[in-house]
Design brief:
Helices cover 27% and strands 13% of the residues. By secondary structure, it is α/β, with parallel strands linked by helices.
């Protein structure tokens, strides 16, 4: 066996630890690193990988989305490595068991009032060390406002990219590319 000289200085692009210095997050990483190593469960490896992620890659999940996703799932714990947020549009919160990194104050209150339970990830590790009877969920990563501005430059033919504009009024970016009488309409 020789040395792989071609890949001598190639570094893994994947994170091996979170960049955040949050003490509680680092303790969770320590816990799930242990569980990922000592159990054969793939669940723990995925949770650990998601704990490493940046905040942009840990999008929030609303209560309404959770109730939709867990409608047909009974006697299982929904696990979100991210934040659970409240949704005023949801009138009745169903009884559900959720484990997450964070809960907003109102989301936690509504879950508990509905007879459900809001667990932290370390409580989940005690209850289900291998992730049995758990459903891993995550939020929509591209739901951010910033993502609407990504892509081909706004105004170029066929582009649906949102322009960075001060206002949406009559006087703002309403000429070429915005109406057929001025060149073309996108």
């Amino acid at each position: 066996m020789g040395i792989d000289i071609a890949n001598k200085h190639v570094k893994s692009k994947n994170r091996s630890a979170p960049v955040s210095e949050n003490v509680y997050l680092l303790l969770l990483v320590k816990l799930y690193r242990y569980l990922a190593r000592r159990t054969d469960s793939n669940f723990n490896k995925v949770v650990l990988k998601r704990l490493y992620m940046s905040r942009v890659n840990r999008p929030p999940v609303s209560l309404s989305r959770l109730s939709l996703l867990t409608k047909n799932v009974t006697a299982k714990t929904a696990v979100v490595v991210g934040t659970i947020t409240d949704d005023d549009r949801l009138d009745v919160v169903p009884k559900m068991s959720i484990a997450a990194l964070r809960f907003t104050k109102s989301a936690r209150a509504r879950i508990v009032n509905a007879g459900g339970e809001a667990l932290t990830l370390d409580q989940l590790a005690l209850r289900a060390p291998t992730g049995s009877h758990c459903v891993l969920l995550r939020g929509e990563r591209n739901a951010r406002e910033a993502v609407k501005h990504f892509g081909a430059a706004p105004g170029t033919p066929g582009s649906k990219t949102k322009p960075y504009v001060r206002s949406k009024g009559r006087k703002f970016e309403r000429a070429r590319g915005r109406r057929a009488s001025r060149g073309y309409k996108n």
